[in-house]
Amino acid sequence: MTGRYEAMWERLNLDLDAHASLLEVLGKFYGDIYMSQQGRLRGMEYLDFVLSEIHGLRIQELQEARANGRKVIGTFCVFVPEEIVWAADAIQVGLCAGAEAGTEAAEKILPRNTCALIKSFVGFKLARLCPFIESCDMVVGETTCDGKKKAYEIFSDYAPVYVMEIPQMKCAADRALWKAEVLRFKQAVEDLTGRSITAERLREAVVLINQRRRALQRLNRLRAAHPVPISGRDVLLINQVSFYDDPKRFTQKIEELCDELEDKVRRGEGVADGAVRLMLSGCPMAIPNWKLPYIIESSGAVVVGEESCIGSRNTRDLVDESASNLDELLDAIVDRYMKIDCACFTPNAERLEHIVDMARELNVKGVIHYGLSFCQPYAMESFKVEKALQEAGFPMVAIETDYSMEDVEQLKTRVEAFVEMVR
Ligand code: SF4
Ligand code: SF4
């Protein structure tokens, strides 16, 4: 890929040497973790292709779209309502932040005890490693956790940042605040793109994004079969790619993959005979953060569900499509996003209910709670999660880690012990 896209990366002001090293590590990592799996679905070839072109073709598409007057908007959180972006004919991309590269640069302007996700996105920008960040006309931050909130202040010195205020509770006053924020965001997107969002455009965008969520819901239903027909790693990858691929193309490809999966389920073919069914819950895992799922799936277990923003939290709820005018559509969007049960909310009883429901529906033997080091909201909430799961009869282990590889052996020992305990 390198030769073909070098001129484009240069125009985007990437540090070409550092970027080449990043791609090399990514390719090796991908080969070891993904390509080594046996009996994968044919449909995964599309995902392999997208990944192999992660900084190539998709970036080229974004550049072409920009040359034709479309705007690119980058986001870090599933709270940012995509429907508004697509309705203004802009393109939304998730800014992945799952690698350690750039951390050194980030630590020059952020405290060391900041979560890896924040350090990663700031580091990618400072070290000029991410063509997605460099392609954005607007980067949308949000006031979810304190770390992110303060990081965007610093990040705004380097990128065109817009910040949405996310409520911390779910009372009537919080909904009113969120509605005002959605309207303010709509105005900002209209100002950026020069296009006004009509009811018709917004309805189309709602349907477009709902279709993608429906395809991912279908995938989640199918993967829950006995025996497990697809590895957790592959599903994680699909969820990760959903954040930056074109939604229409992605939905079509995932529906095709689901057709194939359905046949596999009908034939009773599994990918992990005798493996212990586990669920992951907690912090999001951005590309290429595959460390823990890989460790789990090389320790006699298989991941059958992710209670995460890169997982069911992002796909569980649809926007009501029955609204008849612009204001009703906006209300439907406001209501759908208010259902998100991020640990940044207080109180957050819905999340506990969702986790227990998921564990039951997926028929898992146990849950692994994943927290990024220094992430207070999820670390704090993990105690409540464990209690709720225990009461429902599901064992849980809380794992805290970052993007480094130093603790792989230690994590493997803990995961193996947990798998043996619940088997
Ligand atoms: S975990 Fe919370 S802050 Fe992070 S992406 Fe999800 S909703 Fe946003
Ligand atoms: S992982 Fe935790 S600390 Fe890091 S950005 Fe998300 S909520 Fe904030």
TrEMBL record:
Family according to the record: Belongs to the FldB/FldC dehydratase alpha/beta subunit family.
Superkingdom assignment: Bacteria
Protein name in the entry: Benzoyl-CoA reductase/2-hydroxyglutaryl-CoA dehydratase subunit BcrC/BadD/HgdB
Pfam families the UniProt entry points to: HGD-D
Organism: Desulfosoma caldarium
